[in-house]
Amino acid sequence: MSSKVLLTGGAGYIGSHTYVELVAAGLEVVIVDNFSNARRDVLDRLEIITGAKVTCYEGDVLDAGFLDQVLAENAFDAAVHYAGKKAVGESVENPLDYFRTNCVGFSTLLAALDEADVRRVVFSSTATVYGKPDILPLPENHATRPESPYAENKLICETLLRQLKTSDDRWSYGILRYFNPAGAHPSSLIGEDPNDIPNNLMPYIARVATGDLARLRVFGDDYDTPDGTGVRDYIHVVDLAKGHIQSLRKLIDKDESHIVNLSTGTGYSVLDMLRAYEKACGKTLPYEVTGRRAGDIDGFWGDPTLASNLLGFKAVRDLDDMCQTSWNWVSRKTNSRNRP
Ligand code: UD1
After folding, report:
1. Does some domain include residue 190?
2. What does the alpha-carbon distance between residue 166 and residue 137 come to, in Å, rounded to a whole number?
3. 218 in ligand 1 pocket by Cβ < 6 Å?
4. Reported confidence tier of residue 303, pLDDT bands at 50, 70, 90
5. Are residues 177 and 39 in the same domain?
């Protein structure tokens, strides 16, 4: 497959890992990023990992003129779209800001792509679009009940892609609903590095392991799960990234649109994650059980069957690999923009 792909948000956590896998698969990739939540030196690191020069345009997906210029200078076969905001709590506080970046940004990109005759899009969506599960594991045909502006934004973008396809059959889309990404690249050169105190479990545990945060707060141990703590479907970011290659193949080679979960099908509890991380970093990690976090649910994991049947996708990296690569990444001091 020698095709040229536009990768928006390619300097971010999942985007950068996807860049590596796309290049390894023989694709030519051009990154667009505004660096609002990514470091510029990610590009140097991507060059070290891939051994090839990175092409990146710095700019915003809300800037139609900028997108037109990028599209005029490159003949793309497809786009993979990550550029967006992803903090659920922040989306509740700033719904306008979220709508603008996530929905208006995406529709601006789609209009520019249409104009440039590029009509294959892989979209980074989220399993949060399902809301509270009626059944587990969650299949793709489960009802969608977004419970936050962020989840609603993602669902609106999914709907827009489906409507575009209905309006013009030349469009094809791969909508990928991610479960909980974790881990880092085995090179320890790229990984997750949140700007503020992390909201998510894995980066929070990582900061406890580095000593930057005193202890993990376990948000409730009275859930209906084996050990009482919340259970989620953690998927290695490298597996997640590889899923995009299979999705693109389906669009470029077969012209088949799809909506699939990127999940492992296995759930781990908060305490499972803490124990696995302790094993990886070789330390005991302090924690205290506090009250439940508003909006949290007992268990949430995906059905990976459709991704396997349709795309041949299977997550193969286990929990120990997620924790070990995360620890290798965060324990290198030069990797974090937040540590002295
Ligand atoms: C969150 C987001 C979701 C996003 C996903 C992956 C919310 C409501 N949902 O889901 O949109 O797709 O991350 O990025 O924010 N926990 C603790 N202590 C902590 C942090 C988390 O005990 O400091 C627990 C939570 O209660 C939960 C589990 O760890 O049981 C996972 O939490 P988190 O990493 O925030 O992911 P989700 O809540 O699944």
Report:
1. no
2. 29
3. yes
4. very high
5. yes
The single-letter code of the amino acid at 93 is E
Check pLDDT > 50 for residue 340: no
Question: pLDDT-based confidence at 335, cuts 50/70/90?
Answer: low
- CATH number of the domain enclosing 219: 3.90.25.10
Number of domains in the chain: 2
Q: Considering the chain, what is the average pLDDT of its residues? A: 96
pTM exceeds 0.90 for this model: yes
Verify whether ligand 1 is closer than 6 Å to residue 26 (CB atom): no
Q: Which of 215, 293, 319 to mutate to test the pocket of ligand 1 (most atoms within 8 A of CB)?
A: 293
Domain match, 165 and 224 both:
no
- Domain extent for 131: 4-182+235-264+300-316
The answer to whether the CB of 296 is under 6 A from ligand 1 is yes
Ligand 1 centroid to residue 200 C-alpha, Å:
5
CA-to-CA dists, residue 220 to 154, 233, 292, angstroms: 28, 18, 4
Which residue owns the Cα nearest ligand 1 atom 21?
201
For residues 102 and 150, what is the distance between their CA atoms, to the nearest angstrom? 8
Cβ neighbours for 273, distance < 8 A, ≥ 6 positions apart: 201, 202, 205, 234, 319, 323
